[in-house]
Structures are given as structure tokens and as C-alpha cells.
Automatic annotation (TrEMBL):
Keywords: ATP-binding, Cell inner membrane, Cell membrane, Hydrolase, Membrane, Nucleotide-binding, Repeat, Translocase, Transport. CDD domains: ABC_NikE_OppD_transporters (cd03257). The complex is composed of two ATP-binding proteins (GsiA), two transmembrane proteins (GsiC and GsiD) and a solute-binding protein (GsiB). This is Glutathione import ATP-binding protein GsiA. It is found in: Cell inner membrane. Residues 14-268, 320-569 form the ABC transporter domain. It comes from the Bacteria. One of its GO terms (biological process) is peptide transport. The gene is yliA. GO terms for molecular function: ATP binding; ATP hydrolysis activity.
Amino acid sequence: MAVTHPFMHEDEILTIKDLSLSFPGYHGYTQVLHNVSFSVKKGETLAIVGESGSGKTVTMRRVMQLLANVRTDSGRILLRKRDGTVLDITNISHKDATKIRGADLSMIFQEPMTSLNPVFTIGDQLLEAVLIHQRISKAQAMQKVMELLELVRIPDKARRVNDYPFQLSGGMRQRVMIAMALACNPQVLIADEPTTALDVTIQAQILALIQSLQEKLHISVVFITHDMGVVAEIADRVVVMYQGQVVEENDVHSVFSSPSHPYTQALLKAVPKLGSMTGRPFPATLPILEMSKELSRKPGDAAPQEKTIDTADYTKPPLLQVRNLTTHFIADKTFFGRTTHVVRAVQDVNFDLFEGETLGVVGESGCGKSTTGYSILKLVPAQGKVLFMGSDILTLPDSELKHYRRDIQFVFQDPYASLNPRIRIGTAIEEPLVIHNIGTPEERKKRVEYLLDCVGIPRKHKDRYPHEFSGGQRQRIAIARALATQPKIIIADEAVSSLDVSIQATVLNLMLELQKEFKLSYLFISHNMAVIERVSNRVMVMYLGHVVESGTRMQVFENPMHPYTRKLLAAIPVPDPTRRSNFGMLSGEIPSTIHRIEDATPRIEYIEVEPGHFVASTKEGISFGA
């Protein structure tokens, strides 16, 4: 029964007081949350920041009553209902918890693929969310679903409403999850890393959407994130968590201008800042090492210094030459199997990659950057030429491809999905050596230990399984596996996008150090412009399958010529609350890469605005997001 509570201020809608939680294990319970206290005020945005394992997600999942077998050692969770009364929801029943979810509290989860049901269409799942909490007809609910898809900017919504989750990109799936969370206009919206997998322009739209809904509906937002740029952009107050405790809580301006806790200071140092490489022609490491070392560093100790990485050799012929690369997928067929629509994922892409160089490929979800990487290794059907060491990879039979894949390795976005959960990590790293028949068993064992040393994983952990490591450690293991065959090229597909800022800094520094040691060439695919600026020698900007601008990093970042490149740069949240963007919802219909089979393919012309700096011409009526 709802009662008024003396420990809750009138302007607070959610209060957590002295919450301690323990997880069960083989040897009893282990406490993971230690006396956590904070509150959420009406209409405010509270950001909870911290690394993986700090307890930020666990805290809010406990608020939502979504943790099973977890022991609550102490604390209270209080929620103010819409009628002003206060409800103690610490130990409510499952039935009562179901009532407050959606109507009072709603959560956007970090991983949309595991949150969406793979056997139902997104339309059916959104429809269910609306019908459970709102007493309206099915036709009215379907209209609401279409409005929600429009709100979160899903292109071709009439077609997409009948798609299954696997048919959508990661960014699209996240937008569907946001639409589902907003379906019932909750009092408190808990957003758990809702923009981690999204490119900067869609992130800007989602942040603008949440802000506009917050103003319109007077909802409170709890934003769980490790992106300090997002925190600076939207937060009113910030709670910093470390190892299950709240180590700092203050208004956003105070946290950024004068952080008091060493952990907050270290977090802010680890953030790649757009513009920090202005005037510097070569990539450079970030000035931070392991977080544990940073926190143990005494005031008089020397701080880690940036290292310039100048390994690109432009005197030799290109290591990889890509010419007129085109990749189309079938989108729709007639009843008799005739193709009617295709997805033009990659359209007439050309570039060179030199020894020791990092070519950054940047663009929004669905622009074709990952498909470009897959096409180069013939992981998807493609047309054009991919010349490596004198041979066209796309024309090689599968029997000869094996040799070339030894020299070109792939680091995937999700290391947990790319590592076999049943195989120990030592065996996983050794596997490419076995496949390519490299070395004796003893030599392979030594190679595995050497690679673990290179990526900072203790040798004694080689017999552990992937689930026993953190996300950052798993990504390092994936990098070690990619290095096993001593490749000349590594294609890194969003290799650091899902990592905490300090772990991201460590992995980026590791990749740059390895590039220097092994003269590696990277095709570095990312939607994070600040990361691309930090690690790249040259940059290629993609939009709707086309390259719209390419050049050196200094040319593209310091003198962007294409409207789409400018839009990408303008959409990036800056980790400074005094310089908030005035991004609004972008207007107009979102273009689609799906075309009728008979539609003509536009021919793009490129203008060389300065030596090596090419910009796509828009003469044929292609807006390219301008």
C-alpha cells in the first residue's frame, strides 16, 4: 500500500538509500554493491558513470526488480507514484513489479538483440508493449506503433514493422528498444548505455528525442553510460561509481571542472577528445595506462606520456588496392523467386592501404563500412577488384583463399560472439596456427604465450574460458588471435565501440604499439570520430554505400568539405558541459539503401579539392545527408 515516506523530499521521484547487494557463488554470497545511496528528482537527467563491474547497471536492474537469486543485504528503494504517494518497492511481489514496469519505470537495455524476441516481428513486440499497459483497440495500438517508429527515425517503417530483429542493424534494433520503452510514457526512463552501439548522428537524434520527450512529458531520465561526452551533453547531475560504491556525486559542471575523486579524474583523462590531434600529422597513443596504475600513481610520479606512431610507408606500392567494390543483397522477391528489391550496401568503393598505415572508415550504421570489410575477405558476395600481393582476392577459389586470409585478419565488434565459449582462450589463439599448419606444437605453445604477453593477459590464464574475462580482456584475446598468423593487415570492425573509456584507451594504445612493433596495416572501422581522429593516417567517410570524402586525417577533420562529413563532426558530444550542442531532431525522410532492381545506379564523380583530398560530387541529385 502506498504511504508517505519521511525520508523522501517532495521533488524526488526515486530514492535509493544504503542499498547493498550480494551475488551467490560456489563459496557463498559475495557483496557487489556497498551502501549505494542517491535520488532522482522530477524532470531531471541523472547520469550514472563508471566502468564495467562498477555496479551501475546492477543498481538499476534491482530497482526494476529484474535480478533473480540476488540477496539484498540492506537498503530501501522508494518510488513516488503519480498521485504523490510514496511506495516502498524494495521487496514487492512479481505481480506488483509488473504493474510499475512500463507505467512508472521503464528501461532501455544495452544489448537489443538479447532483449528482443527473435521469433516475433518488431511490430508485434511493440504492439504487445502498448496493449499491455494501455486500454485501446488493436487498430489504435498499431497507429501508436507507427508513431513510435517515426519518433525513433526508423526508415521504411511500413516495411520494417514486419521485419524480425535479425533483419535490422544494431543501431536499428536499439531504436526499436527505445520505442518500446517509451510506449507507455513512464515517469522514470532508465537508459542503460542506449547509444553505445549507435553512430554519432543517430546518437544525437536519440539524445534529442529523449530530451524533447523529457520536456514534453516531464519524465525523469537515469542515463547509465561510460561516454563522458554524452554525460556532458545531457546530464543535470552525475553519480560516479567504482567497485560497487558511489565515489562522487555532484552537478555536471562541478564534476567536469573540478572532479574530486582520483577515479573521476582518470575517467576524464581517458576520453578521446575531438580536436586533440589538430595540427599533428601522425597517430598518437592516449596519455593513460591501466586504470589501477593510474589510481595508484602518487602526486609526484610522472604521468604517462603520449607516443607518436609514425609507421606508414608511402614509398612502397599499396599493400591492398580496392577498385570498384560493389556489394548488393537481395531485399525482396516475388512469389516465384524473382528479385524485385536489392540493398546497395557498398557501391563502387575505391581505396588503397599502405604498409604500416591506418585507414579509418567512418559513417553511420548501414553506411556499408562493415560490409566493405567483409567484402575484402570474401565473407559476403562482392564484385570489383581487391588486389593483394598481385592477386585479386575476389576471383580466387576457396582453396586458395585460405593462404590470403592468413595475411589479412579480422577483429570483430563483439569478442564474446566471435570466441567459442567451449574453447579455452589458449586453444582459440592457437587455432589459426593449426589451421594454417604453422610451427610445431611446442612452437605454437610459445607463440600463444608470447601473444598473451603482447596483449597484457597473464600466461597462466590461457586455460580459462571466454566467459571468465571482462569485455576489454576478451577484445584483447581477439586481437591476440588475429596476430597469431603474423598478418600484414588487420580489419578492425568497431573493435573498441562497446568498451569503457579507460579500457578503450588501453586497447587503442595496445593496437598502436603492436602496429609499431609488427608494421601492421589497419583498416579501422568505427562510428566514433574522436577515436578515428586519434588512430588514423587517412580517413574515408561513407554514406549509403558510397565514399563521400577521403583524404589525410588532417584534411578531413580540419578542413571537412562535404556536408555529410560536417554533419558527422557537428553531432559529436563534446566532454564539456559548457559547450553543449544545440542538436535538434533532423527533419525529412531518412534515405534507404533498399532500391528496386530496375532503378538506375547513380554515377558519382569525385573532385580533388587539394592533393589527396577527394569529395563526392552531388551533381546527380544525391543529397548525401546534406
